Amino acid sequence: MLPGIGQKTIKSNYRKCQTLHFHDGVPLPKANGVSTSSGNFNNNFPSSHLENDYDYDLHRFRPSQLVAARSAIHFERDSKHMDRELAGLSPPIYPPYKSDASRPFIPKTVLYDRLTLRFDGFYFEDSVAWGYSRRTVHPVKLCYYLEDDTISVHEPVTPNSGRPQGKLVRRHKVLKSSHDFKTEKEDNQNNENPQKFWHWKDLNVASDVDIFGRRFRLTNCNQWTREFLMSAGIQVNAPEDVPESHPPLKKNEAAAARSRSAPQHRNHPLKKFLEHDGQILRFGCVWDRRGEENVALDERMKPYVLRYFLVDDTIQITDAEFESNQKRGLYSSNRAQEAVLLRRQRLPKEPRPIMTSPADAADITFCDPQDLMLGNVIPVHGRRFVLVETGDEFTRSFYRNHFDVVDFTPVQLD
Question: Name one GO molecular function term (predicted).
Answer without folding.
Answer: alpha-tubulin binding
